[in-house]
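OP here, attaching both records as promised.
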Amino acid sequence: MQEALAQYLRFLKAERNMSPETLRAYQNDLGDFVGFCSRAGITQPEGVDHKLLRRYLSNQQTRGYSKSTIARRSSAIRGFFRFLVQRDLLDVDPAAALSPPHKERRLPRVLRLEEIDGAEGMQNLHVYRTSLRDMAIVELLYATGMRVAELAGLDSEDVDFERGEVRVLGKGRKERLIPMHEAAQQLLANYIRKERPILQGNAAEGETEGNPLFLSVKGGRLSDRGVRRVIERFFRGLEGGKRISPHTLRHTFATHLLQGGADLRTVQELLGHVDLSTTQIYTHLSKGQLKEVFFQTHPRA
């Protein structure tokens, strides 16, 4: 079973161009399943049947995992066995009829513009050693809606100030160009001119590969986790105790565009979504906000 899993992960990396973060998620989810099979005395894919798969999903519920986690693991299992059948490593797909639980559809959290402008990080910039970098990161995430891995993967040459756009390498290594407004360009230019050279000077000789746009205090490329820490710190103390992540800014970007009159197809392209249905959640969010405003403001509500 372990060897079959290793082959599948190699396939996802080489042929599906999955990011290291996504690969780790697949490895963790399928590793949990393989561990369950091992405890049940099953060490070969041929020993897995539909009944065992249902027992596994039931076990996940008993252990208290959320519906979204169980649905994700069910999807990973289906992909795994589909791969084995397609590669003639297995005759029958035991997961073909596996139906996962319906995922909990939660509306993503969205910030108000005044929450971004009035964030604690914006009010106390002198506290942070990398304030210009942090400001540029926050504004660029909100200005473009890019994913955290996309931002961390940016190189200096990906930014075109003359055209006012940034080149992003998204999922499946697909490129897209996203326009930047003037405020984002100004903050980014300030960071590049005043602070980036200082951070770059902290790097040991030959330690930094490529020409990363955003640097850590040690001069290397700022990691996904580093970006997340920047955002959490920047919005620390936000009213209501909201925990803000880079994805919150991505949700906010999309929702504010739709509320401002942008069409769904444009937002889909900017976000890099393959399927329009993925983008449509933001229309549900806008409707939810309209309903909230209605009940707050209508005299009969």
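Record two, same layout:
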Amino acid sequence: MKAITISRYCAEFKGFSYVDIDEPPPPGNNEVTIEILASPIHPADLLSLAGDYAVPPPLPMIPGGEAIGRIIAVGNNVSTVSPGMYAIPLPRGNWVERRTLAATDVIVVPHGDCLQLAMLKVVPATAWLMLTSIVSLASGSGVIQNAANSSVGLAANRLADHFGVTMINVVRREELIDQLKNYGARNVFLDGPDLAQRVRLAFADLPISLGLDAVAGQASFRLSACLSEGGTMVNYGLLSGEPVMVAPQRTIFEDIHVTGFWLSKFIANSNHSDLENLYEKLAKFVADGTIETPIEACYPLEQATKAVRHAAAFKRDGKIMFTPSAAALI
């Protein structure tokens, strides 16, 4: 069986290999075996290859934060799932052809577009939870986000419409403005030193109570300056590699709050039935096209180096995916 493994952490993405490994064991009691159909390459995956994401686990390891798979075998005492069902694996380690996992470590989802379902665990869940669990957003209130062209940013745009809140979008490249508008996003601003002045001029009467920061550094400094008094900025990404920045005048005199969001912690602290309910709800948004992430390219596992470097490129117009079982997608 083929897999991608990391043998050493390397900022230049030279520490991983395409290798043969043993087949996963047959499913035992309360276990299932899944065939991985598709797995996206997220910024968190790139940080994992460099050893810069959370607490780096011991090596060697198989990376890959999320995927969609087809159940191909079930063990004893498994009654809620059966072969042929689609499922998202909750643990990391998905850049591989097949996995055997505890039945409680997978969430069954309806059949649909495999490439979109491969991002169900992270993209819409991150956007949904940041919009619903950080502050109480009243209909008609405002949210501002940077990296608005990211997969999470695109999902947050669509969900903001669903919740009846105004989304203000900030991008780092001018050519992304029309791209975002073609996607259906509104209120798109190019980041810059005067961002807060331009946003406040355009939305003088809108309470902007939530900011979604995927970049950190000076970008978070400018984003926090756009928030209304008492607003909260939630940092969920490390795209700049810099610390989160907020002016002390904002925290002291205007009661601006800063917090973080990490989906992995949410999943670890949630019971299985709650996760099933969450992903059942989000799968409907994917199925009806409300949430749809552009995909730029798909690669087999054997083209791992090319795929990772493509995913790490600054100028992309969609997600890069691994399709370990490409024939099964047909």
